[in-house]
Design a protein that fits this description.
Blueprint: E1 5-10, E2 15-20, H1 23-29, H2 32-43, E3 57-60, E4 75-80, E5 87-92, H3 96-102, E6 107-111, E7 118-123, E8 126-131, H4 140-144, E9 152-155, H5 158-161, E10 169-171, E11 174-176, H6 181-187, E12 190-196, H7 206-222, H8 225-233, H9 239-244, H10 266-272, E13 276-278, E14 288-293, E15 296-299, H11 303-308, H12 318-331, H13 335-350, H14 366-374, H15 380-383, H16 387-394, E16 402-403, E17 406-407, H17 417-425, H18 439-442, H19 457-474, H20 487-492, H21 497-508, H22 510-519, H23 533-542, H24 548-568, H25 580-583, H26 598-609, H27 619-624
Parallel strand pairs: 1-6, 7-12
Antiparallel strand pairs: 1-2, 3-4, 3-6, 4-5, 7-8, 9-12, 10-11, 13-14, 14-15, 16-17
Helix pairs in contact: 2-19, 2-24, 7-23, 12-14, 17-19, 19-22, 19-24, 19-26
Length: 629
């Protein structure tokens, strides 16, 4: 077994020291966002401003990172959430994490603030802090071109420099998008981190690993979701599915369907704009879209960007969406929070409350507005603070579509109430992934679990939140977890009687799911390609006695730890909330059930989680998971 090697870097004092990770900590928290949360909890004091010098930025990898396992190039950034004041974790598929590990480090713990713009360079075990005066002001791709192509790079654009609250960090063309990672780097005068090395990743059982990975790749390539739908249409293939189930945000979540949805769909993108497929390193899915913007080939938009800069602002022009997606990446801004904030500003204009120069259906000035947001120019300076801030200043809180201060992703939860519960309870705010992504079972996937029923949704939400946490903490793309859904259900389709029966059976099994977490990890003392291949892969990489049950318990431990961090920062059950538009105004005026019934679901959710009424993990749960305050 090889234990992780971290470096602790003080930008103020310009010094770096090794930070040891012991075996107990490694076995309990593995890496990525789970280890990042542990370190953030232990090494920072409550009440810090996320942009203060004392605030900490953790950039770390996972055991699978760089091994060649399917979709394992991802790395993590953990920090205090600029948007919510709670926990923040942001995942990225660029090459920086792999090169950081090859340079001899599994993670960086960064604190302090450099006196002048700087960048960090990790080369074959050595760490250097260098001046970034000439890089300051550059956009994301221009910065990265200043370093050798083979280096792994993580950079910010102008938005991070100007402390836009939802600024992101960029590695290659991949983005650590949510929660303000770019603003945290900017607050530290840290323009970039670059890494290069030749150290090979550790694999405990190389022969067994290679054999298992080969089987897993074939499995993914033959699965209808990861081997057909995602490679063919990318995540934008969800647009028409969401629209058909009234789950596509439209006009700042006023509606759930858009009459021009097909014009911005993954199918239309594939037919008219797609240059070729691509993807992250070691990914057999290849879901990335390559498109042209101003005759330059760039990464195309994901579903979230299409929804929030398409239907949600009433824009049916794919060229505009492609351009906005590219521009936001270059300037370094999260397209989810950016799109959600602009949509709210459009509604403020519609209501006669405030005029930021944006309105539904208008796109001629959209790129100009986005640039002004990035540089905090004029009245657009206010848009750089997000929807929650705008609502506190101008009112109309019911239409500010966020959870805990983070804008919601592109799934309308009034036709996917389990997804609504996930948004409300997500530790990092309005995140579909940290929220468990129950929309996959309700509105955009194949399993027909009644999207308006509250029965079974707390149990399913807990199960999927913990699973997502484990997969991410081990270093894998969450798309690889799609294969948990049996292939034959995709082939039957959501309207088939047997698929519908499976959906009903899943909800009816809520009692079993409810006690599942009390019996972990003994309930699943095995590994299976058809359940979570990640567990066996992790076992082969690390040498740990990993089973599916232990793997899922690590995910549960991570989720509870995030909750403990949020509670320490003042978040309680009252923050598990959604705007009144989603909880009190029916999407369908003829059907009062088309609201997210949080009050019905939250008590059961807390009970299944083993939390008190205040939303904090009870002593018994903390003891079971071996968590300490």
């Amino acid at each position: 077994m090889r234990l992780p090697v971290y470096a602790k870097i003080d930008l103020t004092g310009r010094k770096a020291t090794r930070y040891p990770i012991n075996q107990e900590m490694f076995e309990k928290y593995i890496g990525g966002k789970i280890m990042g949360s542990r370190l953030l909890y232990d090494l920072t004091s409550p009440g810090l401003d996320p942009l203060a010098p004392e605030a900490m930025l953790i950039i770390n990898t996972c055991p699978a990172n760089g091994t060649g396992a399917p979709s394992s190039s991802r790395f993590n950034m953990s920090f205090k959430n600029v948007m919510t004041g709670g926990i923040a974790t942001s995942n990225c598929g660029g090459t920086f994490g792999m090169m950081l590990k090859r340079a001899g480090y599994d993670g960086l713990i960064i604190t302090g603030r450099a006196k002048n713009p700087c960048y960090l360079m990790m080369i074959d075990g050595e760490i250097h802090l260098k001046s970034a005066r000439e890089l300051w002001g550059m956009e994301a791709q221009e910065v990265q071109k200043q370093f050798p192509q083979e280096y792994g790079k993580l950079v910010i654009g102008p938005a991070g420099e100007h402390l836009v609250r939802y600024a992101c960090a960029v590695s290659g063309e991949r983005v650590a998008g949510r929660c303000g990672a770019g603003a945290v780097m900017g607050s530290k005068n840290l323009k970039a981190c670059v890494a290069y090395g030749t150290k090979e990743p550790y694999i405990y059982d190389r022969e067994g690993f290679d054999e298992y990975v080969e089987k897993w790749v074939r499995f993914l390539q033959h699965h209808p979701m990861t081997g057909a739908s995602l490679p063919k249409y990318g995540s934008a293939g969800l647009v028409n599915k969401a629209n058909a189930s009234d789950a596509l945000p439209t006009r700042n979540f006023q509606k759930g369907s858009y009459e021009h949805a097909d014009e911005i769909s993954g199918e239309r993108l594939a037919d008219t704009k797609l240059v070729k497929n691509s993807g992250c390193t070691s990914c057999p899915v290849r879901c990335e879209r390559r498109v042209k913007v101003h005759d330059v080939e760039v990464k195309g938009p994901e579903y979230e960007t299409v929804g929030l800069f398409g239907s949600n602002i009433e824009n049916a022009d794919l060229d505009i969406i492609n351009e906005v997606n590219y521009l936001a990446d270059e300037l370094g801004m999260d397209t989810i929070s950016l799109g959600g904030t602009i949509a709210f500003a459009m509604e403020l204009k519609e209501q006669g409350i405030a005029d930021f120069g944006v309105e539904f259906g208008r796109t001629d000035n959209l790129t100009e507005v986005i640039r002004k947001i990035a540089y905090r120019e004029g009245i657009c300076d206010e848009l750089a603070n997000g929807s929650k801030w705008l609502a506190e200043r101008y009112g109309h809180e019911a239409a500010a579509i966020h959870a805990k201060g983070l804008e919601l992703a592109s799934y309308e939860p009034r036709q996917s109430v389990g997804m609504g519960l996930g948004y409300a309870t997500s530790n990092r705010g309005g995140c579909h992934l940290n929220g468990g992504y129950l929309a996959l079972f309700e509105s955009v996937g194949v399993i027909s679990a009644d999207p308006l029923s509250t029965k079974g949704k707390p149990e399913l939400t807990v199960m999927l939140q913990n699973t997502m946490e484990a997969v991410s903490g081990a270093g894998f793309c969450l798309f690889t977890a799609y294969s948990m859904i049996p292939s034959f259900l995709f082939r039957l389709g959501p309207s088939h009687w047997f698929t519908k029966f499976c959906g009903k059976a899943l909800l009816a099994a809520r009692g079993v799911l409810g006690i599942m977490w009390k019996l972990m990890p003994g309930l699943l003392p095995f590994n299976s390609m058809y359940l979570l291949p990640h567990a066996q892969t992790l076992k082969l990489i690390t040498g740990l006695p990993m089973t599916t049950g232990k793997f899922m318990q690590i995910g549960e431990r991570g989720y509870n730890l995030e909750r403990m961090y949020n509670y320490r920062e003042g978040m309680t059950a009252k923050d598990d909330a959604l705007p009144e538009r989603l909880t009190k105004t029916p999407q369908d005026s003829d059907n009062p059930d088309t609201v997210v019934k949080l009050k019905q679901m939250l008590p059961r959710y807390y009970q299944v989680r083993g939390w008190g009424k205040d939303g904090y993990p009870a002593k018994r749960k903390r003891k079971q998971l071996k968590l300490y305050d």
